[in-house]
Amino acid sequence: DAAPTSLGDASLQARKLSNRLLVTIRDDVAAHDRVATRLRAQEASVVRPSDPVFREATSALESELERLPFRTNQRERIIRDLGKEFAIEPSTLTLRSIAEGERLRTSVKEVQRLNRRVAALIRMHRDVTREILNSVLGDGSGRNLLDGGTLIDAEV
Predict the structure, then answer these.
(1) Which of 10, 74, 127, 145 is in the most buried spot, having the most CB atoms within 10 Å?
(2) Using one digit for the tens of pLDDT, what is the confidence trace for 43-102?
């Protein structure tokens, strides 16, 4: 970008940067909403991991997560350009201080909450499965099936 030659050019450049940042923030919010939707689908189908809904939600979630570094770099570049434009140290600019911070913060909190719920459901499902295996395949010794090849012996 060429350096502005007048106050009007500087104002136009600032508006362009602000608009780019607003679009980037909206993209971030939309991405967090998509992640929350995928986490809800995983949460609903976590007890049926072979269910196509679970696999589709997991695949879509992986795609969203792969785009995170790109969106982060894009947002940081725009914030750095805004800092230069207004002669403000870019490290002092944050999304909260610039625009739509509350909506993004709400989306991020929702994703974190759903992620914790899905993780807890998966842990619970794993523990129940382990308990069932121990009850059905256990040899009565109280030894954990996952210790020392017990599960392999039971399958043979």
Answers:
(1) 145
(2) 877 777 677 877 788 888 888 889 888 988 888 888 888 778 777 776 666 665 655 556
The packing angle between helices 52-85 and 7-45, to 10°, is 160
Distance CA 8, CA 17 (A): 14
Cβ burial 111-131 (10 Å sphere, 16+ → b, else e): beebbeebeebeeeeeeeeee
**Please, what sign has the CA dihedral across residues 50, 54, 57, 58?**
negative
First vs last C-alpha separation in the chain: 69
Computed from CA positions of residues 113, 117, 119, 120, in that sequence, does the dihedral angle turn out positive or negative? positive
Structure tokens at 142: 């109280």
